[in-house]
C-alpha cells in the first residue's frame, strides 16, 4: 500500500507520515523497562523524550488515575477546579510564580508564555513592544508561533512566512543581546539547557546577565523548562541552579509523568494584564491530567528524591566518560546536567542510536551529532551499569567499520 505522500506504509497506512518511526512497538512497561510486542525487553533511556520521569506504570500514578477515572474526566474551565487550584498552589509554592495556566503540551505552554510576554506591555500602554529575543539552537515547539521562536529553517520550511517578532542571536553572546534590545523588545526567551539543540547551555553568568538586562529595560525573562523542568536536571526546576528567577516559565513533558499536561507559570507582575477572555483552553487542567501531575509532585517532593537523581547522574556521567575514553573512534564527549545527558558521537548519531536499539537500549538523538540519555529519574545503579554495558557492546560493533573508514579501506 502507498500513502498520499508516496511512501510505503504497510504497518500504519493511515497515520500521517510525519514521524520516521523505528520498527519496534511496545505493549507494556514497568519502571525503566519496556516490553515489545515481540516479547523482547528494552531498557528505556528515552523516557518518552524526558516525559516518563517516574518510569512506566509507577504505582502511585496508576492509583491516582484509576481513582480519578471513576469520578470525573472533564468539566471545562467554565467552573471551579479545586484539584487544579491545589496543583497550581503547589507549583507556585515550589517556584517563583504567583499564577499558573494549564494546557495540554509544551508548545501550548510556550504559546501562553509568548502571549503573556506581549500582553504585559500591551496592558502598560506599549502595544508596540512585541519582539522577543531567542537563541540559535533552541527548540520551543511545533506550532507556527513556537516554530518562529525556534527559528530553524528545517522546521519552518513549507509553512509560509514565519510569525513576526523574534530576534534570534548566538547563544551566550551578551553583547549581541544588548545591541538587540530596542523600543519594540518585549522579553528574552531561553532554555536553561538546549536539549534538542545538542544538550548544550550557556554559562551561568550569561543567565544572570540576561536577568540584569531584563530588569534594566523592563523586559520579561522567559524560561522554557518543558524538557529541563520537573527534576530532569537534578532539581525540580533548572532555574534554581542558576541563582536567578525568570518572570515566566513553561512546563510540560514530565509534569504529568506520561499523561499530557502543560503549564505556564508567571509572576503577578508579568500576568497583570491577563483577564477573562485573554487566553483559554478547552482541555487545559483536565481532571485526569491534574490528578496525574499532583501524583508526580507527591513522589518528587518526598525527601531524597532529587538527591537520588543527582547521585545517579554523577554515576552515569562517570561511567559514560570511561566509555568515551576507551572508544574515541565512536564517542567524543559527555555533556549535560542531572539526567539530561548527551553523548557527542564521532560516528553519525543515528548510527549510534540504531546500534543501541540493537542492544535493546533506547536513546534519542539531538543536534550537534549528540545522542541523549534520558533515563527515568528513578533509575538505579544496576540499571545504569546495564545501560553502559549495552553502550560498550554498541561501540564495539561500530568500531570496526569506523576504523576501516579511518584507514581508508
The SS-based structural class is alpha/beta
Largest sheet geometry: 7 strands, mixed
Shape: globular
Q: Biggest sheet, strands in spatial order?
A: 4-10-9-8-7-5-6
Name the beta content range: 15-25%
- SSE ordering: EEEHHHEHEHHEHEHEEEHHEEHEEEH
Low-confidence stretches: 1-10
The average pLDDT value, as a whole number, equals 94
Report the strand count.
15
Cα distance, first to last residue? 40 Å
Please give the radius of gyration in angstroms: 22 Å
Provide the fold topology:
Layout: E1 26-30, E2 33-36, E3 41-44, H1 47-50, H2 59-69, H3 82-93, E4 99-103, H4 106-122, E5 131-135, H5 144-150, H6 153-156, E6 166-169, H7 174-180, E7 185-190, H8 204-217, E8 220-224, E9 248-251, E10 262-266, H9 287-300, H10 305-326, E11 331-337, E12 340-345, H11 349-358, E13 361-362, E14 364-366, E15 370-373, H12 381-406
Parallel strand pairs: 3-13, 5-6, 5-7, 7-8, 8-9
Antiparallel strand pairs: 1-2, 2-3, 4-10, 9-10, 11-12, 12-15, 14-15
Helix pairs in contact: 2-9, 3-9, 10-12, 11-12
